Amino acid sequence: MAPNLALVGFMASGKSTVGRICSERLGFAFLDTDKLVEDRSGMSVREVFEQWGEPRFREMETAAVELAAMRDRVVIATGGGAVLLPRNVEALRARCVVVYLSVSPQAVMERTEGDTSRPLLETGSEAARRLGVLLGQRESYYRSAAHAVVDGQSELPAAIAQRVISAYRGVAVRWFDLQGRGT
């Protein structure tokens, strides 16, 4: 059985876009944990944050991550904060090759201009600085969760997806070796 592929990274790093391309190329299903939360709650992520707060959203996100990771032959796009909880990282790493899509705060600002659907996205003159701080706070979480890191901003999504697939395949070989040894 091939391991799943999980994409982690900051909001607007391309996890969903690149993930869909990877799923097509690998012949895997595609799952987005934010979409799973929305489907189960009947609300947008922003509405969940507004009505129940971030702690409740994180609980729902954990359920979505665990559900997604237990599937076979899937590419999973996680929410930007999924790696903040060790339980999520453990669930992903147990059955997935985890790839971190790295982006700069400037790329996030460009990609999210006018986007009102992201609850942690701030607007105004201090937005870029705040995004930089938040990304900086999460960087070590992304890196420690990941088996591989791919630059998520320097090329078109199809080229980034190809690099993700190459990283996935390289790690999957080692992943099988580790699984075969019972580690």
Task: Give the helix proportion (percent range).
Answer: 55-70%
Globular, elongated, flat, extended or rod-shaped: what is the shape?
Answer: globular
Overall pLDDT score:
87
- In percent terms, what proportion of residues is strand? 5-15%
How far is the first residue's CA from the last residue's CA?
A: 16 Å
- DSSP strand tally: 5
- The stretches of 5 or more residues where confidence is low (pLDDT under 50) are none
Biggest beta sheet attributes: 5 strands, parallel
Which class do the helix and strand fractions yield? alpha/beta
Radius of gyration: 16 Å
Order of SSEs = EHEHHEHEHHEH
Compute the number of helices.
7
* Widest sheet, order of strands: 2-3-1-4-5
SSE blueprint and pairings:
Blueprint: E1 4-8, H1 15-26, E2 29-32, H2 33-41, H3 45-70, E3 74-77, H4 86-95, E4 96-102, H5 105-112, H6 127-145, E5 148-151, H7 157-180
Parallel strand pairs: 1-3, 1-4, 2-3, 4-5
Helix pairs in contact: 1-7, 2-3, 3-4, 5-6
Short description:
This protein is an alpha/beta fold and about 180 residues long. The model has no long low-confidence stretch (mean pLDDT about 85). It has a 5-stranded parallel sheet, with helices on both faces.
Structure commentary:
The chain is α/β, with parallel strands linked by helices and 183 residues long. The protein starts with a strand and ends with a helix. The protein has helices at residues 15-26, 33-41, 45-70, 86-95, 105-112, 127-145, 157-180; strands spanning 4-8, 29-32, 74-77, 96-102, 148-151. Strands 2-3-1-4-5 form a 5-stranded parallel sheet, sandwiched between helices.
